[in-house]
Amino acid sequence: MLDDREPGRGGPRRREATDLYATVLEVVKRYHGAARITRVSYGAGMPVDRLRTLVERLVALGLLKAEEIDGRPAYDITPRGQEFLSTYWKMRAYIEVLEANPEDRISRRRA
Description:
This protein is mainly α. The protein is built from five helices and two strands.
């Protein structure tokens, strides 16, 4: 989902908290109100125990809402969560521009 490679390197980079929040919100959004913790865990590539803590935080922040379906919790993204994602993706685009190698931009202009 999100590119986990460090710029200029082939290896994985550590995901920041905001990256994790965005990943979880994107996965939950995919399930349209029926996202169970195990499905989100697979989609986000996180262990369930760690994900539960993160989901509880997202619920407390008002970015996700929880409801019972068949006696088990299911999650859905809130309008505030949608706003977070929109802002997150805009900021990621700015960050990528700032982190880009200046020589790449100069050589693209000349081409």
